[in-house]
């Protein structure tokens, strides 16, 4: 009697190769560098802050619909920044094989987040209470907002250099270049402070025309805009400390 032979089972090398899906959402979303979500978060934060001048322009123009549309865009971007922040906090490895401590990254992340929060506060304030802007203050207010956004962009540029800094061992020309960027950021924020104080002085000269309530809310609006640059400078300061270790 002849027995038919069952086909041999494939050896492990003959098994069709399959790519196992990663079990770490952090890696699947952002790759293996912990800087990727931090950089993506800062890009989103800067995009959020960059809408503030358009928000103010709509306020100055008396464009209620335009102001609402810009405010909604700011709130959407702030929510997106929160999603990235929460994902990073949840999935960032507790130990990293690189010269950057997990706590340092999370602290930079928190400082970045204050920028988006400040843009959100400005947007929500104007949604709740649109206010008149004296004609003499309109252009200085816009210039101030653009200066604060520039500080955010400079902070973003510095954060984008983190991968390169790791490759260079946090030393040499690349380190000097990033430190110079942080110095420039500090100067940009200092200039924003000067512009903010000038706006405060101008605001109080219009108190009789605007009324105390409008002055109060405009003062708060200017403060929230200034916090964009303040937050950016704090990101730069924290980055300076991180690089000095």
What does this structure look like?
This protein is an all-alpha fold and 245 residues long. Helices cover 77% and strands 0% of the residues. The longest helix is centred in the C-terminal third of the chain and has 34 residues, at 172-205. Helix 3 packs antiparallel against helix 4, helix 4 (64-91) packs antiparallel against helix 5 (102-128) and helix 6 runs antiparallel to helix 8. Residues 1-31 have low confidence and may be disordered. It has helices spanning 25-30, 35-49, 52-61, 64-91, 102-128, 135-159, 162-167, 172-205, 207-210, 212-244. The chain has one domain (33-244): Up-down Bundle (Methane Monooxygenase Hydroxylase, Chain G, domain 1).
Percentage beta strand: under 5%
Under CATH, the homologous superfamily reads Phosphate transport system protein phou homolog 2, domain 2
Distance between the termini: 81 Å
Number of helices: 10
Question: Would you identify the regions where 5 or more consecutive residues have pLDDT less than 50?
Answer: 1-31
| CATH architecture field | Up-down Bundle
The residue fraction in helices comes out at: over 70%
Please provide the ordered H/E string of secondary-structure elements. HHHHHHHHHH
Rounded to the nearest angstrom, the radius of gyration is: 25 Å
What's the CATH class label?
Answer: Mainly Alpha
- Total domain modules: 1
Tertiary shape: elongated
Query: Mean of residue pLDDT?
Result: 86
Quantity of strands, as a count? 0
CATH topology: Methane Monooxygenase Hydroxylase, Chain G, domain 1
Summing up helix and strand content along with how strands pair, one would put the structural category as mainly alpha
How would a crystallographer describe the biggest sheet? Answer: none
């Amino acid at each position: 009697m002849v027995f038919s032979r069952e086909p041999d089972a494939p050896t492990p090398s003959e098994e069709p190769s399959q790519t196992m899906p990663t079990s770490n959402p952090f890696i699947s979303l952002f790759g293996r560098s912990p800087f990727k979500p931090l950089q993506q978060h800062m890009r989103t934060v800067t995009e959020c802050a960059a809408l503030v001048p358009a928000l103010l322009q709509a306020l100055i123009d008396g464009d209620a619909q335009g102001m609402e549309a810009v405010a909604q865009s700011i709130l959407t971007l702030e929510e997106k920044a929160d999603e990235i922040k929460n994902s990073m906090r949840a999935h960032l490895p507790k130990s990293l094989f690189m010269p950057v401590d997990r706590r340092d990254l999370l602290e930079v992340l928190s400082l970045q987040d204050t920028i988006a929060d400040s843009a959100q506060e400005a947007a929500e304030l104007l949604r709740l209470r649109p206010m008149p802007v004296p004609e003499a203050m309109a252009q200085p207010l816009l210039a101030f907002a653009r200066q604060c956004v520039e500080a955010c962009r400079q902070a973003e540029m510095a954060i984008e250099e983190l991968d390169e800094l790791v490759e260079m061992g946090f030393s040499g020309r690349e380190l000097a270049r990033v430190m110079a960027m942080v110095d420039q950021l500090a100067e940009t924020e200092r200039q924003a402070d000067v512009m903010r104080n000038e706006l405060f002085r101008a605001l109080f000269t219009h108190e009789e025309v605007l009324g105390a309530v409008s002055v109060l809310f405009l003062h708060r609006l200017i403060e929230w805009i200034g916090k964009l640059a303040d937050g950016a400078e704090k990101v730069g300061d924290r980055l300076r400390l991180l690089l000095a270790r």
